[in-house]
Amino acid sequence: MPSRARADVSRKPEWLKIKLETNPDFVELKKLMRAQGLHTVCEEARCPNMTECWNRRTATFMILGEVCTRNCGFCAVTSGLPTELDLAEPERVADACVQMNLRHVVVTSVARDDLKDGGAQIFADTIRAIRRKIATTGVEVLIPDFLGDVDALQLVMDAEPDVLNHNVETVRRLSDRVRSRAKYDRSLEVLRRAKVMKPAIPTKSSIMVGLGETMAELHETMDDLRANNVDILTFGQYLRPTVKHLAVEEFYTPAEFAELRAEGLKRGFAHVQSGPLVRSSYHADEQSEAAVARRKAGASAGQ
Predict the structure, then answer these.
(1) Could you name the CATH architecture of 18-302?
(2) Which site in 59, 130, 153, 218 is 20 to 30 Å from 141, CA atoms measured?
């Protein structure tokens, strides 16, 4: 395994430097979001791929407001007590998908521990609204853990998203420090139950690197995810949003990301997206298509 760039984490290595550009499509999409009163995790989480994805006319909608009931050490989304619950939001998200003619949309949310179902019904309503208005669009949901509420998860799975995503974010040892209120084993249980509820729906999770984990711990996390039948895995470099957030402990090299991908595929994931700037929703349409194609190829080979 190549050595990591540990020497100076105060400066980003060359492979993490990106040039932000805008074009008319980017500006048009931003106006559309504001006109519909919608939020994107692209903006709220300060995603480094926002320009690229928006220029491809893809986006990740963040429903249930812009204030999160949790205060995770890695996340730039505003934390506090939410005051809004917009029951008309699913229809506006669906309308935006129609106007953008999206081929694949990711719907995520802040954590809403103040709600009895954690916002699960709004997720389900959003999936159904998109399907009703633009049936050709693939719908992926990136859900919180709903505090382990099985009925809430069932609401989402009954709406039959094309991909069910829930992120473990980091390795077991660091989970309590990195994630607020979330529990490593509870996240695994969410992913396990989702697959039991709807075996045909691909499940997905993501891991940030650079928070002080070891390679052995990353291998263990991959094994835990595969043991719970997770299909798709992404790896990306953690980047500190502000000085108030957890510090970057190390930068992984492109060669290390390539090796993580190889390790994931060796363990049986249908698709692994791994790179310094990869985020959970990065090229989500391609991830889903690749996973389905690999699963079909495996089924054919087994006949």
Answers:
(1) Alpha-Beta Barrel (3.20)
(2) 218
156 neighbors 195 (Cβ within 8 angstroms): no
Tell me how many degrees the CA angle 258-22-59 measures, rounded to the nearest 5.
60
The model's pLDDT over 246-297, given as tens digits with 9 standing for 90+, comes to 999 999 999 999 999 999 999 999 999 999 989 776 666 677 776 666 666 6
In angstroms, the CA 156 to CA 143 distance is 9
Q: How much of the chain is helix, strand and coil, in % rounded to 5?
A: 45, 15, 45
- Residue ranges of domains in the chain: 18-302
Residue that has been written with the tokens 């529990």 in this structure: 183
Q: How far apart are CA 170 and CA 303, in angstroms?
A: 37
Instruction: Decide: 166 and 194 in contact? Cβ < 8 Å.
Output: yes
Among all chains, which residue has been given the structure tokens 């103040």? 114
pLDDT digits (tens, 9 = 90+) for 48-106: 556 666 556 677 889 999 899 999 999 888 899 998 789 999 999 999 889 887 888 99
**Which amino acid is present at 51?**
T
